[in-house]
Amino acid sequence: MTDAPDAKHDSTAAAEQAPREPPSPAPRAPLPPASDAVRAEWGRRIEAEYRSAAITQHLTLWLIQMGASPDLIDDGLRIVKDELAHARLSHRVHARAGGGALPALRRETLGLKGGDEPLEMAVARAGVEVFCLGETVAVPLFKVLREGCTVPVARRALDRILRDEVRHRDFGWTLLRYLLELPCAPAVRQLVERELHAMFARLRRSYMPPGGAKRATISDDDRVWGLMPVARYGEILERAIERDYAPRFGEHGIDAAAAWRRAASAPDRAAAPT
Fold first, then answer.
1. 203: closest CA among 262, 267, 272?
2. What predicted TM-score, i.e. pTM, was given to this entire model?
3. Cα–chain-centroid distance for residue 46?
4. Minimal CA–CA distance to 233: which of 128, 136, 164, 140?
5. Given CB 3.0 to 4.6 Å as the disulfide criterion, which of 16, 177, 184, 230 pairs with 215?
6. What is the pLDDT along the chain (274 residues), one digit of tens a residue?
């Protein structure tokens, strides 16, 4: 006995209308082994990005208090959001690498310290050291870190960070130009010329620690997780003097090369915590 034609049609239609199971996701490719160095470095990046968000928020508050350009204020607030996004992305990498809980950040490091000086001077000091120096060298640093990175979660993080760092760098130089157009410009210039060598010295301690030049290799597994040898940090910083700092400060009549030479001739000290 066979089904009637109408019954066949009804059963076929019902089968076509029945919900279908979604296809099973493709299995994830196994990740390269993550070393303690990978977990430590991405943990450090979480902290650095979160600290940058707090510092930028504080700097932007100062910009509001001094009645700065609305465009600068908007840019500062956008950078805060960027840094928090970077911290979240870095946390994902840290977790996929097998990282556990991190120690709480010291709250006293999550902000800027003002003094008795005019607010414009505090803004100039923070803007130059954090953005003109730190964010400017961050662009080539993250470019090199990204080039060797193939672990997808780490590569996505570095893609976003590198894209944003370009805008963060530009914010610093726009801020310096703005300050040098205010009535306080002579005092701002004096501050930068007086303190730039000390700022460079702190940058050297972070990126060129004693003995760092000898640490020129890392494993391929560490590289694909977005790490690079300590020696490369120093090389990139040295190159930034000629390619970035000297010409950019030179546009304002500030001799960055001389400040760098003075910083380089200072006695070596232990690397500052980062």
1. 272
2. 0.85
3. 10
4. 140
5. 230
6. 444 445 444 444 444 455 566 665 555 668 889 999 999 999 999 999 999 999 999 999 999 999 999 999 999 999 999 999 999 999 999 999 999 999 888 898 899 988 889 999 999 999 999 999 999 999 999 999 999 999 999 999 999 999 999 999 999 999 999 999 999 999 999 999 999 999 999 999 999 999 988 999 999 999 999 999 999 999 999 999 999 999 999 999 999 999 999 999 977 544 433 3
Quickly list H helices, the chain: 5-17, 36-65, 70-96, 119-126, 136-147, 152-179, 185-207, 220-224, 230-240, 246-250, 256-264
Q: CA 246, 247, 249, 251 torsion: positive or negative? A: positive
Q: Are 165 and 138 in contact (CB under 8 A)?
A: yes
Sign for the CA dihedral angle at 236, 229, 203, 263 comes to negative
Q: What token pair was written down for 14?
A: 């019902």
